[in-house]
Design the sequence.
């Protein structure tokens, strides 16, 4: 279990920073010691990942046992297992600057991934490059886009058998709303004949598991979709929202290294750039404008007009090796400028500080949430052992 900070240690930190900056919050001005907190917070984040994965496995086992008691032998494993998350080397989330400023090794190998839009790129790329691309898709949560040897056996079952499985999993109403293409009564329609999408409370084996482990579903209003979401685990504390991105952009701007970076890129022959609103350089829209791919592989928010006109002479879009060399060269020049200007160091420090503050804000709530998860996991394991 990760080591927890004592109330005394927090009070001492507040007192020290209050002396430095009277009248200010202890999170507002002075740099915090990233190295002193990184290992503990990384352990905290990884413990949360482990607990979620263990609960995913236990929930899946309970639901699967329920289904198999009804005679179902093949399963929609993706629905049972949920999305997996791997443990981290650091608690830090991916930084905005990493989109356009990879490491030198990454730039030399894969550029900015824009080449993946070239037709047959997965065939034209060598084994090392394609392996890196596959790993990137998995990291982004798009493992299902990778070529496989075929669908799982469950999806070769007759539609009626698949639909029966979903009915047993979540109940008649739930299955009808989610899998009407497989059979059942189908979706209801409004006066104009348009199908009405709803999100009914699940029943069946999913409800049985939720009630036995968590006591029941929690109804959450989804104002965007206009329906109710049904959850069962207490919400995990997160650092999402707020002014995280804004604080990062302001810190980087205060470092004075942005103009040095842009001047360096201009002097390297890649034209005059400006930063997008989210603190990124629109490298993929620039490469797309140069003539490669149907669309940018990534695009910062509100970035239109922030990249220069591409060079007049660029490799043809179907010249895979020529384009890859062009893209790699651009990425390597950008990386070199990031180092020479001091921008990378300043951005890394800014990201560490804004993330550290927010993870410290949710530390106590996260430990309390983890205690709840351990209790639910113990209950789920008791049910499995019954």
Sequence:
């Amino acid at each position: 279990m990760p080591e927890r900070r004592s109330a005394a240690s927090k009070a001492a930190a507040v007192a020290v920073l209050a002396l430095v900056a009277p009248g200010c919050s202890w999170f507002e001005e002075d740099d915090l010691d990233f190295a002193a907190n990184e290992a503990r917070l990384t352990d905290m984040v990884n413990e949360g990942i482990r607990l979620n994965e263990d609960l995913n496995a236990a929930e899946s086992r309970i639901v699967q046992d329920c289904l198999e008691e009804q005679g179902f032998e093949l399963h929609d494993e993706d629905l049972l297992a949920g999305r997996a998350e791997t443990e981290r080397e650091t608690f830090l989330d991916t930084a905005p600057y990493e989109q356009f400023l990879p490491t030198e090794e990454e730039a030399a190998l894969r550029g900015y991934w824009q080449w993946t839009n070239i037709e047959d790129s997965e065939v034209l790329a060598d084994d090392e490059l394609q392996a890196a691309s596959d790993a990137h898709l998995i990291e982004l949560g798009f493992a299902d886009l990778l070529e496989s040897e075929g669908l799982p056996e469950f999806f070769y079952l007759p539609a009626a058998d698949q639909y029966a499985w979903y009915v047993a999993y979540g109940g008649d109403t739930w299955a009808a709303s989610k899998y009407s293409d497989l059979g059942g009564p189908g979706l209801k329609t409004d006066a104009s004949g348009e199908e009405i999408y709803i999100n009914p409370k699940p029943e069946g084996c999913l409800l049985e598991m939720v009630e036995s482990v968590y006591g029941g579903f929690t109804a959450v209003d989804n104002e965007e979709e206009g329906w109710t979401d049904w959850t069962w685990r207490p919400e995990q504390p997160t650092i999402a929202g707020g002014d995280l991105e804004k604080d990062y952009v302001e810190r980087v701007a205060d470092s004075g290294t942005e103009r040095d970076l842009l001047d360096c890129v201009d002097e390297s022959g890649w034209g005059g750039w400006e930063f997008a609103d989210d603190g990124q350089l629109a490298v993929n829209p620039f490469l797309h404008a140069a003539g490669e791919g149907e669309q940018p592989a990534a695009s910062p928010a509100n970035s239109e007009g922030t990249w220069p006109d591409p060079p007049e002479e660029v490799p043809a879009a179907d010249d895979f090796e020529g384009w890859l060399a062009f893209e790699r060269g651009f990425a390597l020049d950008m990386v070199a400028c990031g180092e020479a200007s001091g921008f990378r160091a300043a951005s890394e420090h800014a990201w560490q500080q804004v993330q550290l503050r927010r993870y410290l804000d949710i530390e106590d709530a996260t430990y309390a949430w983890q205690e709840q998860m351990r209790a639910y996991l113990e209950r789920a394991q008791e049910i499995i052992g019954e």
Q: What stands out?
A: The chain is about 55% helix and 5% strand. The radius of gyration is 25 Å. Residues 153-231 form one domain. Confidence is low (pLDDT under 50) at residues 1-28.
